């Protein structure tokens, strides 16, 4: 093995995180081999994935910029500057930012994946090997075994082996067999099912059936549906319902789904002609949070969902994965002679961020499902925006920090808590309550 | 299959929980088959296990009573009515109870296991099959596959299959493959190593080298050693040290362990002639908390460490397992026609208890390691005992509820929090602080 071989990096998984990492390392002159279990999506149909569209925000854009790919978003994303809350057929728009102008971006997962794959493949240093399923990894020996599509086994070897192979990561599975590896998988009582609002020929938003520049939410009794716009005029809707209980997948059989929608999501029902058929045929997916500790053993290291699979409610899964990829690439490129040191630095930086966004994503489910429809919640959001307008960076709403900055997640969470504490201390509780009441009155009296 | 076969119960694991459950079901007239991976300990040496002695308290005694075996403790246990804290060669005794009379009981794990095994085997209804390793369980079919010691596979079938096979449960492993099974394993940064204080010929406590009626603790800088008495005059010591760091297994090589002990555990070092050899040869064991949800799929159900492996710091692992076994046996015996209903009732009752004692055991590590040596902690304990003396059952210290009652763990924790809140509310913070200061002065000025 020559000196050059020693710095080659093996990446397992050609999803979003794996392809971005390959591109960044390749652009940095590092040789990379990417192994992917599935076939080449460019020849054989789209790569699978958890959801059809993603919400890419500041952290994702930052990663794309580092890879020289930020132009893609201009051409292929639909900006969503706020939430559209649907209740009893009426809608209220809640801006995501104080200025009302900052937006998260609805993009197609498979298109973004293809873009990143092509961009990585452009680099001479990057080689892709498809149809290779990871069988086992040995962190001590720095070896990894694969089976090709005919079941033939092959072994490869590198100082750095990156598991970018998603929530059910095979690389993490191998690390789980090493001593004292902490791991958790925690399933919600809720599952998800994807449905469609197809494009329309006419109407005020044509080809869109409803306002395209928003993330739509239909909150309802401990469950919700959301919808994100696609470039072709359709929306991908996702039902987040409990598996069992009064308003659940278990309680609503396909033959009653139209009646249920007419009652609780009437304006959506009106634009969903294929509801019964899709509800009957589309699977229910589970929602899990997975965490582990550590994220590496020697040179075998995890990024993205393999290290921290989170629920989708903050729209941060892909964004967090891009941050991982960028941080790891920077570390490896900065210290070619000390890959283990670079990996340790990456882990120290990122583990708190992975845990923080996992927590925040769970909390945002409660917020979207139970609070977005409430007057007090809208008042609180307005108050936050008001305070941000008055105090600037001294008061940054948590949602803004998470979605529109690259402040590390854990720091954003701490800062958000501190801001409210400082505010209470500065104004006294009484004044705070008065402000809140004023804001509430404002919210109720103002339209929308 | 006849009607009688339908009510037969398969238990996997002939450890403490499995044997107690078999005994309770057998006494209730239920046919039971117990499969155990290891050989029969009565013919082939002791069953393995995590620690050589256990602290059995009220919940364990309650389980033994239900099995008609409470007499064993009278003959084979050493009561420990309090903690003996060793610091810089001096000792302080802290009673566990307000009366000073209630004690937890040091018993040999392997002897207790043999007692329970014999007691279960006495029942005509109970059959043991040793040397049978669980390969897989199918909750839908109600089948379980084993391999015998020659590797021959066998399948058995029952409506109720109980996994009592410990922290690394094979039955739980099979449940983990079912959809949406939540699971976590969380390792401490600390490990444990067992050492011995051998019996002595002479001295004030002979054959014991130190006071036998206490659980000894040597707290020291973020780590500790404990010692529990054995019937033969020896003590089993356990080092709970971090793997890495300033005072850790990594930092103290065998050739420096005597010097280290002389410095930090001097009175123990004086009675540990085999220290160097034992420190060198005995393994370091990991300390993990494992949780899962749910504890059953259809008729396949988990009890004891298989459902909730906890760290040993509250001395409640075996006690909690006995509570599980007793509760499950009661449910199954009360509803012979509805085993799944009985299992669901068991799970609903016990899951919060398993989580609560897992949390409490982790907290007690901090208490034992960092607080027991402090004056304020001793003052707080005295204050608790004082308040219990004054207020009776209206103020039950948490340790008393956990160790000397069968109040469910989660309820005990809630009650403990509520008591302090009520006290603060009733007396006002100022009075509370004054009482605490008085108690502190009392603690410092009184001997011991």
Question: What features would you describe in this structure?
Answer:
Chain A has helices spanning 3-7, 16-27, 41-44, 58-66, 71-76, 109-122, 170-175, 257-264, 266-269, 275-281, 317-334, 339-371, 375-391, 398-404, 409-445; strands at residues 9-12, 32-36, 53-56, 78-80, 82-87, 90-95, 104-108, 126-130, 133-138, 143-147, 153-157, 160-163, 182-197, 215-220, 223-229, 235-242, 285-293, 296-297, 300-302, 308-309. By secondary structure, chain A is of the alpha+beta class. The first copy, chain A, folds into three domains: 3-78 and 104-184 and 287-364, 3-Layer(bba) Sandwich (FAD/NAD(P)-binding domain); 187-286; 375-445, no CATH class. In chain A, strands 6-5-14-15-16-13-17-20 form an eight-stranded mixed beta sheet, sandwiched between helices. In chain A, β1, α2 and β2 (32-36) form a beta-alpha-beta unit. Chain A is globular and about 65 Å long. The interface between A and B is medium-sized, with 13 and 13 residues.
């Amino acid at each position: 093995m020559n000196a050059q071989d020693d710095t080659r990096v093996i990446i397992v998984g050609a999803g979003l995180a794996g392809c971005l990492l390959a591109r960044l390392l390749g652009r940095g002159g590092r040789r990379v081999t990417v192994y992917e279990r599935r076939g080449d999506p460019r020849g054989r149909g789209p790569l699978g994935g958890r959801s059809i569209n993603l919400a890419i925000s500041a952290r994702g854009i930052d990663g794309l910029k580092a890879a020289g790919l930020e132009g893609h978003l201009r051409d292929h994303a639909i900006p969503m500057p706020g939430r559209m809350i649907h209740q009893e057929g009426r809608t209220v728009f809640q801006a995501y930012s104080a200025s009302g102008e900052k937006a998260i971006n609805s993009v197609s997962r498979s298109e973004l994946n293809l873009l990143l794959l092509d961009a990585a493949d452009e680099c001479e240093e990057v080689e892709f090997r498809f149809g290779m399923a990871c069988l086992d990894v040995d962190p001590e020996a720095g070896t990894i075994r694969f089976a090709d599509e005919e079941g033939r086994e092959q072994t490869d070897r590198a100082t750095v082996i990156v598991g970018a192979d998603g929530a059910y990561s095979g690389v993490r599975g191998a690390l789980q067999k090493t001593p004292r590896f902490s791991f958790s998988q925690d399933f919600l009582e809720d599952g998800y099912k994807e449905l469609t609002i197809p494009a329309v020929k006419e109407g005020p938003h044509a080809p869109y059936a409803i306002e395209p520049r928003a993330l739509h939410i239909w909150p309802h009794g401990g469950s919700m549906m959301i919808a994100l716009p696609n470039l072709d005029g359709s929306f991908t809707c996702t039902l987040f319902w409990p598996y069992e209980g009064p308003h659940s997948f278990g309680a609503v059989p396909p033959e009653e789904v139209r009646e249920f929608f007419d009652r609780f999501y009437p304006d959506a029902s009106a634009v969903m002609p294929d509801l019964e058929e899709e509800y009957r045929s589309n699977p229910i997916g589970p929602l899990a949070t997975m965490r582990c500790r550590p994220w590496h053993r020697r040179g075998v290291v995890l990024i993205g969902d393999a290290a921290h699979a989170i629920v989708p409610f903050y729209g941060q899964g892909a964004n967090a994965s891009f941050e991982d990829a960028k941080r790891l690439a920077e570390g490896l490129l900065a210290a070619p002679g000390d890959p283990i040191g670079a990996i340790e630095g990456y882990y120290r930086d990122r583990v708190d961020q992975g845990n923080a966004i996992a927590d925040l994503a769970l909390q945002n489910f409660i917020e979207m499902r139970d609070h977005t429809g409430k007057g007090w919640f809208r008042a609180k959001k307005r108050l936050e925006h008001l305070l941000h307008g008055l105090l600037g960076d001294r008061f940054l709403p948590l949602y803004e920090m998470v979605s529109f900055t690259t402040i590390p997640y854990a720091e954003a969470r701490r800062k958000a808590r501190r801001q409210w504490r400082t505010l209470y201390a500065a104004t006294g509780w009484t004044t705070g309550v008065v402000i809140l009441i004023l804001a509430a009155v404002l919210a109720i009296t103002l339209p929308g």
